[in-house]
Structure formats: structure tokens, C-alpha cells
Amino acid sequence: MLHSLIFFAGMLFLVALSSVDLIINLTLFCVFLITSVILKLPFFTIISKIKYFIFSLLAIYSLSTPGELLFYYSFISVTHEGLYFGVNNSLRIINTFLTVMILMKYIPKKFFINFIIKICYPLKYFGLNIDNLTSRIFLTFDYLDYYKNYAFTFSNFIEVINDHIKNNSYAINTKKIERVIPSIIDYYWIIAFFFSFILIQFFSI
Question: Which residues sit opposite 76 in a β-bridge?
């Protein structure tokens, strides 16, 4: 129940992030920074992993958004509106990643797996094999656990994966996978989330 409540609050927070302004995003960023220092979370590691994406986002918004000119040289022009949207959306992306990081730290992996299966469960009546889906999701998360601590670069990523497949260097631990069946309470959570999502979108207009 506690994990469901934390996850529900986290998802609503992520939805709300899409409609906040620069001041709120900057405030949330500072709160995440302080929280990460206190809880010893890998704040700067997360920032480092998405730095190129953030720089690209800043450049695209700053150079392509029309508005009041701040800087102009040849074909390069930076506008006040572009810089504002670039910084705001960059902070929004960073806050989103940090929110997910906190959720992943305090909610067990099994909860996320069960959540995905429960969301997809109604597709069973349209021909989806739930048992096959369950095994694939468990295998995916197991491989993610393994490769997240494996040293590789994007240039040799495919080569590393192929070597591991050919050499059978990693084998998933044999385990009994429990069949996941959603309860009425699970659907209440889902309905409550979508209802809250609609309310947030309505009041943000």
C-alpha cells in the first residue's frame, strides 16, 4: 500500500511538472540538490549522463525560438524567449530524471514489474499472452540490473552485447516467477490516477 501511494504521488508529480514555470522548476531543482546531498543520492551522476541531451535542448530552443534578440552574429541569433524555454525545459527534464531516480530507489523492482503487467493485463482479452509478457519483463529487468554496472561506451555497446550472447557469459538466475493478477484496488489506483491527470490538465489551461 505504501509503495502504491509513493508511486501514485510520484506519477502525479511528473504530470504536474509539465505545466510549471521556470521559478518553480528552479526551486524544485534546488530541493532535489539538497535532498540528494542529505540522502547521498547520485545527483551529479544523473546530470552527467544526460548533459549532452541538456546542452542540445538549450541550443535548439535558444537558436530556433523567435522573440526578443539577446545576441546576434551572422546566422546565429539567441532570443530571450528561446533562452527562457530552453532553461525551463532543461530543468524540467532534469527534475523528471531525478524524480524517477528517487522512485527507483525507494520502490522495489518487483513493484514496477507488477505494475507494468497489471497495466497490460486487460490486453489478455485481445490475445496477449500474459505469461510470456511476465517472463520477458522479468528477464529485461534482470539484464538491466546486470548491465547497469558494466563498463562500456556507446561505440562498443553492440559489440559487448553480441559477445555476451555468443559466449553465454551471463545467465539469468533460475527463479520461480509468480503469476500477477490485478485486484480491484489496482484498478481503483489506475482510475484515480487518470482522474487526477485530467484535473491537473484542466486547471493548468
Answer: 73
Distance CA 103, CA 81 (A): 33
> Contacts for 15-20 with beta carbons within 8 Å, 24 or more apart?
15/196, 15/197, 15/200, 15/201, 16/200, 17/92, 17/95, 17/96, 17/99, 18/92, 18/204, 19/200, 19/201, 19/204, 20/92
pLDDT digits (tens, 9 = 90+) for 13-71: 888 888 888 999 999 999 999 988 888 888 888 888 888 889 988 888 888 888 888 77
Nearest 10 degrees: Cα torsion 186, 116, 178, 140 = -170
Contact (Cβ atoms closer than 8 angstroms) between residue 121 and residue 13: no
Residue 199: its pLDDT value, please? Answer: 78
122 — alpha (psi -120 to 50), left (phi > 0) or beta?
A: alpha
Q: Report residue 87 as a C-alpha cell.
A: 532553461
Where do the domains of the chain lie? Answer: 1-107, 111-183
Residue 119 contacts by C-beta under 8 Å, 6 or more apart in sequence? 190
What is d(CA 117, CA 186) in angstroms, rounded to the nearest whole number? 11
Cell 520461480, located at residue: 176
C-alpha cell at 82: 528561446
